[in-house]
């Protein structure tokens, strides 16, 4: 059951191919990474057989299975088993004992995340919680998109506030007064371009900006 392709440093193994795991694996493939998908359900594996370059139906809680798959040679692994706590812990524990791949893991609850953290997992996903917080900011502040970066900062896209149009970005002084940097602009042609100090925003432009979560709402259109 060992992979027939030679494992490269950019290879990623994904355990659990539910909605989160399959979306993550497919996005990595789209980005050019070689991905091995692993799920205990033959039906799930069959549904992804034509989309993932390498996908296996097997019980990942068996340490011998991990060795047969050559998981120790991967640079990164993602445990996307969120709803089966026992399986998540067993797989994660076996991976950590390998002292090889860097481990990311999904947590469905804060309690599961705490257990994973105590086990030594440094990278933990909270997809449901993170998506809920993201959606709250999009709804409340009318952002087109919102990504919390941590440490009190966020990356957002939104339609430009009319009060910010018609003058160069340098004159607006957003970085000085609000700590906000506009880094890209998308006009009527639907193409993103870099924003510079001399860029002049127009009504209806969409902007990509980064700044403190407390002040980033200033740029939202009325």
UniProtKB/TrEMBL annotation:
<protein>
    <submittedName>
        <fullName>Trk system potassium uptake protein TrkA</fullName>
    </submittedName>
</protein>
<dbReference type="GO" id="GO:0006813">
    <property type="term" value="P:potassium ion transport"/>
</dbReference>
<feature type="domain" description="RCK N-terminal">
    <location>
        <begin position="9"/>
        <end position="125"/>
    </location>
</feature>
<dbReference type="InterPro" id="IPR036291">
    <property type="entry name" value="NAD(P)-bd_dom_sf"/>
</dbReference>
<dbReference type="InterPro" id="IPR050721">
    <property type="entry name" value="Trk_Ktr_HKT_K-transport"/>
</dbReference>
<dbReference type="InterPro" id="IPR003148">
    <property type="entry name" value="RCK_N"/>
</dbReference>
<dbReference type="Pfam" id="PF02254">
    <property type="entry name" value="TrkA_N"/>
</dbReference>
<dbReference type="InterPro" id="IPR036721">
    <property type="entry name" value="RCK_C_sf"/>
</dbReference>
């Amino acid at each position: 059951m060992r992979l027939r392709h030679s494992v490269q440093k950019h290879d990623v193994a994904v355990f659990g191919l539910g909605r989160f795991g399959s979306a993550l694996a497919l996005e990595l493939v789209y980005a050019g990474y070689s991905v091995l998908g692993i799920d205990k359900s033959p039906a799930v594996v069959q549904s992804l057989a034509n989309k993932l370059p390498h996908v296996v139906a097997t019980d990942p809680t068996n340490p011998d299975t991990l060795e047969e798959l050559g998981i120790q040679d991967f640079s990164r692994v993602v445990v996307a088993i969120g709803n089966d706590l026992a399986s998540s812990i067993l797989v994660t524990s076996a991976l950590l004992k390998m002292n090889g791949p860097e481990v990311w893991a999904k947590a469905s609850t804060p309690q599961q995340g705490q257990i994973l953290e105590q086990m030594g997992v440094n990278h933990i996903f909270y997809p449901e919680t993170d998506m809920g917080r993201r959606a709250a900011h999009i709804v409340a502040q009318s952002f087109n998109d919102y990504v919390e970066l941590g440490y009190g900062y966020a990356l957002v896209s939104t339609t430009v506030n009319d009060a910010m149009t018609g003058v160069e970005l340098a004159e607006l002084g957003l970085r000085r007064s609000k700590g906000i940097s506009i880094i890209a602009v998308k006009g009527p042609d639907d193409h993103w371009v870099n924003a510079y100090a001399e860029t002049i925003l127009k009504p209806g432009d969409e902007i990509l900006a980064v700044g403190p979560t407390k002040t980033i709402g200033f740029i939202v259109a009325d």
